[in-house]
Request: fold
Amino acid sequence: MTEPGFSVPSGGPGAGSTTELRARFVEQIRRDGAPMSAELAAAFATVPREAFVVEGFQGRDGGWVSPGDRDFLPAVYRDDVLVTKVDGRIPVSSSSQPSLMAIMLAALELRPGMRVLEIGAGTGYNAALMATLGAEVTSIDVQADVAERARAALLRARIEGVRVEHGDGYAGAPGRRFDRVIVTVGVAGLSPHWLDQLEPGGLAVAPVEHAGTHPVLAARGAADGPVTAAVVCPSGFMSAAGPLTADHPFAHPAPATAGTLTGFEPVSGPRWAPALDSMSYRDLWYAAGVWYRRATHGALPGFEQSLLVLLDEARTGGAAVLPDGGVLAGGDEAAGYAHDAADVVKRWESAGRPPMQAWRVTLALTGRPDAPIWVPATWQI
Ligand SMILES: C[S@@+](CC[C@H](N)C(=O)[O-])C[C@H]1O[C@@H](n2cnc3c(N)ncnc32)[C@H](O)[C@@H]1O
Reply:
């Protein structure tokens, strides 16, 4: 089954009807841990995600999946990010992972009739979900072709109530007022323009850089402060262009790429059996970012997953904390960094293993003098 006025290949034999695929899709999003109201589940079950990726996307194996392919619809209706544009090998636009979208939309506390500013229109799919929930959406994308394709997709899917604009989202939508801001690209901090355009008591949900990743914050405040936030969930968004990712004094180091950290040796053995699951490891990671400015992540030879690393200033050494609490270290200052890494583990354990959601964040105004941003600066549990 396809939407009225919109037609894509059926997905080939065995793909199942789109209605069935969407029903399974909603169940998958729930299983992956996203809280969903009946309204949000209905939005995921009715908005045709395939209408937003008609030029295809990058599959898990790196190949391009197109609407004519047998696996197209099953791949569209997986709880997976769909990368829709790459620059060389770097993804520069995508439809985000649906369970992450669901968690962010729940945190947005959206109600029908609310005016929403979205930064990062991408495919337009998230804007379509919000419009289906009754919001009036202004969505901005820095790439003109991406904004144009999002407009076309919204028309194709017959979604009303979304205005897509081309521009740097830093400025927001001057002269307009919003009840909510949602940012769907990784940023170093919040633009004061968004806070200025928010009604008093409004909420901004945004993935803000912390220790090399982008945990999602739900922030409130005025353009001239104070600005405070709760932590919603971990995320790994692509980074924004322009002043939204400006370097600043509170920033953690950029992640260490493969091949830069070599010669790391075990310093202390496992502390936890079984090892932390991925969520708890993220919680430890978050705490490490609060306590140590050099916390980020890095690829270490022999480890498939990226690890929590306290990176030295040379960016070639430091210490890594494994999910089982073991510590490896390397480089000229290995001993000092190993001590700090062991301290992170002990401190997090003796604090009762706080989840990232336990932290309350206070933001400070910094960034480029001509385009300041509010960035996380102090934390308390
Ligand atoms: C992960 S995608 C957004 C996903 C989208 N909300 C969806 O539903 O498909 C991130 C988008 O942010 C855009 N972007 C990057 N920097 C930006 C900026 N400074 N202002 C506005 N958009 C930006 C990129 O062009 C990209 O399309």
Q: What stands out?
A: The radius of gyration is 21 Å. Residues 1-15 have pLDDT under 50 and may be disordered. The longest helix spans residues 334-350.
